């Protein structure tokens, strides 16, 4: 399901700029492997896990290790270039979209989709002496495909 390949060299070349720019603007030194991981996240909005990123990039970057992917993601999250989601209790998921939005996870197939949120859903800080740095909103249910499967099974 996550086998969206970026091994196409031309596409890779074209996207290099975007990942590079994101890294530099968040104060991250742009090594080739970091650029590749950042690009992967920008191009594959599937909220991938460490393993998905590793297995998709490894054929193109044989020097890549799972640890490098993990450590790179840690830096990207720390510097705010990427957000980490804990919607999947087994694996952390990563999202290049750092604008406020909610997430939906299908309880049957496990796919994760973006949901738009209204600006006013962001809670007010001033009533308490706190500072909100991050908002995570998770919804669970069944995706359209799984709903269809369930319905056809029941009829
Ligand atoms: Zn589903
Ligand atoms: Zn998202």
UniProtKB/TrEMBL annotation:
Annotated GO biological process: negative regulation of DNA-templated transcription; regulation of secondary metabolite biosynthetic process
One term of GO molecular function: zinc ion binding
Cofactor: Zn(2+)
Pfam families in UniProt: FUR
Binding residues annotated for Zn(2+), in chain numbering: 106, 109, 143, 146
Co-factor binding comment: Binds 1 zinc ion per subunit.
Keywords assigned: DNA-binding, Metal-binding, Repressor, Transcription, Transcription regulation, Zinc
Stored Gene3D superfamilies: 3.30.1490.190, Winged helix-like DNA-binding domain superfamily/Winged helix DNA-binding domain
Nuclease keyword on record: no
UniProt cross-references to InterPro entries, sorted A to Z: FUR, Fur_C, WH-like_DNA-bd_sf, WH_DNA-bd_sf
Domain of life: Bacteria
PANTHER family (alphabetical): PEROXIDE-RESPONSIVE REPRESSOR PERR, ZINC UPTAKE REGULATION PROTEIN
Similarity comment: family membership: Belongs to the Fur family.
Protein name as catalogued: Fur family ferric uptake transcriptional regulator/Fur family peroxide stress response transcriptional regulator
Organism, as annotated: Coprobacter fastidiosus NSB1 = JCM 33896
